[in-house]
Specification:
Layout (H helix, E strand, L loop, with lengths): L3 H13 L19 E3 L6 E3 L3 H9 L10 E7 L5 E6 L2 E7 L5 H13 L3 E7 L3 H11 L4 E5 L13 H8 L4 E3 L9 H14 L8 H8 L5 H13 L1
Parallel strand pairs: 1-2, 3-6, 6-7
Antiparallel strand pairs: 3-4, 4-5, 7-8
């Protein structure tokens, strides 16, 4: 690659994934390499344009495959969803996202990077509000299944990413349409409880702010800040 800064960023991403590599000064020196990451076509060349995409393009080679045929994305829904990616039965990625809104973008990048023949998204049914929000962001573009987490509870030792691993390998019911997002009183109270914990017991946000948090319009931190400003007026 002529852009050495870009090559360095790719190298960092490959290191994160424990993918062995060498930086070539000349793309003509391609002998003895199974795959070459490049911005231009050539024998054994894989074209990519972003560091994460580049790493995903070659990840399957660690498993003796030019690419994964089937990708499963397992998601444990919640304010900070736990997500795992399974390529042809192998765990290849796991991450905890910062919020529900990041899920769609993450899945899109996974699909572009791995370019599988099929991609299935399996979502746990534990957090109904966030589950439905995630489903609604994906169902028009991907095959989505909702997994009964009660059938997986014995295998789950903790939440988030570990739960997502079990969810990924559990068949669920297919969702074909968007779901209603119904926010019940108990859910609002739970958000208010979390606001007290997050603010060290100093602030309990209002029901109105809790509803905005539940709908993903604002973050819990923003709601706490707004409530603090109101109290100081």
């Amino acid at each position: 690659m002529k852009d050495f800064r870009f090559a360095y960023r790719i190298a960092l991403e490959l290191q994160k994934r424990s993918i062995p590599y060498e930086l070539l000064r000349d793309e003509k020196e391609t002998r003895n390499f199974e795959v070459i990451l490049s911005e231009s076509p050539g024998d054994n060349f894989v074209i990519c344009h972003e560091p994460e995409e580049c790493a995903r393009r070659v990840h399957s080679y660690l498993y003796g495959k030019k690419r994964f045929e089937r990708i499963i994305v397992g998601i444990d829904p919640g304010p900070k969803p736990g997500v795992v990616v399974v390529g042809d039965g192998n765990f290849v990625e796991e991450v905890q996202l910062s919020n529900v809104e990041e899920v769609r973008n993450f899945v899109d990048k996974v699909y572009r990077g791995y370019s599988p023949d099929s991609l299935v998204i399996r979502i746990g049914d534990g957090d109904i509000v966030n589950r439905n929000r995630i489903v609604n962001s994906l169902v028009e573009y991907y095959r989505v299944e909702i997994v009964n987490e009660r059938n997986t509870s014995e295998a789950i030792t903790n939440k988030d990413v570990e739960s997502a691993k079990v969810i990924a390998f559990t068949r669920g019911r297919i969702v074909r349409n968007k779901l209603n997002v119904v926010i019940r009183e108990g859910y609002l109270k739970e958000i208010q409880r979390r606001s007290r914990i997050r603010s060290d017991g100093k602030i309990t946000i209002s029901r109105e702010l809790a509803r905005e948090v539940a709908l993903g319009k604002i973050s819990l931190e923003d709601a706490i800040s707004r409530m603090r400003e109101r109290d100081e007026e």
